[in-house]
């Protein structure tokens, strides 16, 4: 059984991704004109699917906030697109462009978009302040002097780190809360058929971003392997030649000793 936050959440996320692909197939089929006898149930399944992810993420954040800040279960490409540990909520509005909105729907969603962007800026600015505080005195100075710390200074460092971690947790909770509210308010403006297409578009984006990220990470790994192989091929033969050419005087001494 997993024994720490990394193992636990990685195991959960692997299973969540498998369920995500199965759900995505149903959403795409229904969204592309296929008949689904219970579209409301399908929308509820999608809502529950993402709620499960964020509930598990919230638990992991409480256990190890720094791990969630740079989650290794995501690819480098995915993390490059992130805003406060996940895709920004403003990204969601790209997925309503092809939903044939009425004028009333478009107006309601535009109001949600404006409020989301405002809150996104506020949370982003707060996170920037928290990150700056992590490098500010006395924390930065204490980290630089870790090898020389006495008991009182260790306690001071622990207290400072706890303050930073708690501040980061607060920002992450606010960011995920904004994501949840944004989805809920978008769904309130949509008809059920549009909801299905919306979730299908969101899910497909996640799958494609991960696929691109995996390909990029694999290519980077192969490049690293090639570089290491080239280094060994260019240096190791010289090492072997030196090893096979013993000193002449040493060879004569060994020959005389054998005789």
TrEMBL record:
Could you tell me which InterPro entries the record lists for this protein?
A: Seed_Dev/Stress_Resp_Reg, TGA_domain
- Protein name listed in UniProt: DOG1 domain-containing protein
Say which species the protein is native to: Centaurea solstitialis
Gene Ontology molecular function, alphabetical: sequence-specific DNA binding
Give the PROSITE patterns listed for this entry: DOG1
Residue span(s) of domain DOG1: 6-219
Q: Which GO terms describe its biological process?
A: DNA-templated transcription
Q: What PANTHER family does the record tag this protein with?
A: DOG1 DOMAIN-CONTAINING PROTEIN, PROTEIN RESPONSE TO ABA AND SALT 1-RELATED
